[in-house]
Amino acid sequence: MFESLSDRLGGVFDRLTRQGALTEDDVTAAMREVRQALLDADVSLPVVRSFVRAVTAKATGAAVTKSISPGQQVVKIVHDELIAMLRGEDAPETLRIDTPPAPILMVGLQGSGKTTTTAKLARRLKERDRKRVLLASLDTNRPAAMEQLAILGRQIGVDTLPIVPGENALAIARRAKQQASLGGYDVYMLDTAGRLHIDQALMDEVQQVRDVANPRETLLVVDGLTGQDAVNVATEFDAKVGVTGVVLTRMDGDGRGGAALSMRAVTGKPIRFVGLGEKMDALETFDAERIAGRILGMGDIVALVEKAQATLEIEQAERMMKRFAKGLFNMNDLRGQLEQMQKMGGMQSIMGMMPGMGKMAKQAEAAGIDDRMIRRQIALINSMTKKERANPDLLQASRKRRIAAGAGMDVAELNKLLKMQKQMADTMKKVSKMGKGAMLKQAMR
Ligand code: GDP
Question: At which positions is GTP bound (predicted)?
Answer without folding.
Answer: 108-115, 191-195, 249-252
